[in-house]
Specification:
The chain is of the alpha+beta class. The strands form 2 sheets. Strands 2-1-6-5 form a 4-stranded mixed sheet, with helices on one face. The protein has a two-stranded antiparallel ribbon with strand order 3-4. The protein is elongated, with a radius of gyration of 29 Å. Its main location: cytoplasm. In the N-terminal section; belongs to the PRA-CH family. In the C-terminal section; belongs to the PRA-PH family. It comes from Geotoga petraea. Its EC number is 3.5.4.19, 3.6.1.31.
């Protein structure tokens, strides 16, 4: 726990050019607003328990509610792990937003549909790699992957070569995407046959970055 007297010195003021971003939430943990404080604004907040913000547009310190009467009283304050942001819990009097809403984050944004979401993680390749490994170690007569391993190196390498060519000769964008997915699958089969994990490929690529 940090003593309030030590907080001013613990914050990395230089990182924010003399300002620290503050996330303000109410006692029910709903986020109300995002603002900024300089050292003086924070010091006045700690002493009075009334929230003081630093206005970047007006270049001055202002007390929340000084005109509207929608005051914020400090109940709890937490410093983040990098010492460059604060989370403040307040008792909110009236709406927090100058537009009259409870929170400044009241306008909901519609996200893309789940089926249109792009997954940039490695997880889908890991899942496929694990399935291929399982079919290699525990053959299933109904599995195409198990069939490839049964046929051996020549068949596995030939199929990968065929799929690579299919990518190059694909007649349109949709077909090239389809054939690329096939090629990646067969590449993972080649790697599995050779006892190479895809993580080793990623490690090699990472090592090539300057």
């Amino acid at each position: 726990m940090i003593l309030s007297n030590d907080l001013l010195n613990k914050i990395d003021w230089e990182k924010g050019n003399g300002l620290v971003p503050i996330v303000v939430q109410d006692e029910e943990k709903e986020v109300l607003t995002l603002g900024y404080m300089n050292k003086e604004a924070l010091e006045r907040t700690l002493k009075s328990r009334n929230l003081f913000y630093y206005s970047r547009t007006k270049n001055r310190i202002r007390m929340k509610g000084e005109i509207s009467g929608n005051f914020q009283f400090l109940k709890d304050i937490r410093l983040d792990c990098d010492n460059d942001a604060l989370l403040l819990t307040v008792e909110q009097i009236g709406p927090a937003c100058h537009l009259g809403t409870k929170s400044c984050f009241s306008e909901k944004v519609e996200l893309p549909k789940e089926e249109d979401r792009i997954d940039y993680s490695y997880s889908i390749l890991q899942e496929l790699e694990n399935v291929i490994k399982s079919r290699k170690e525990n053959p299933d007569e109904k599995s195409y992957t198990s069939f490839l391993f049964k046929e051996g190196k020549e068949k596995i390498f030939k199929k990968f070569g065929e799929e690579a060519v299919e990518v190059l000769v694909a007649e349109n964008r949709e077909r090239r995407i389809y054939e690329t997915a096939d090629m990646i699958y067969h590449l993972l089969v080649v790697l599995s046959y050779e006892g190479i994990s895809f993580s080793e490929i990623l490690k090699e690529l990472k090592g090539r970055r300057k």
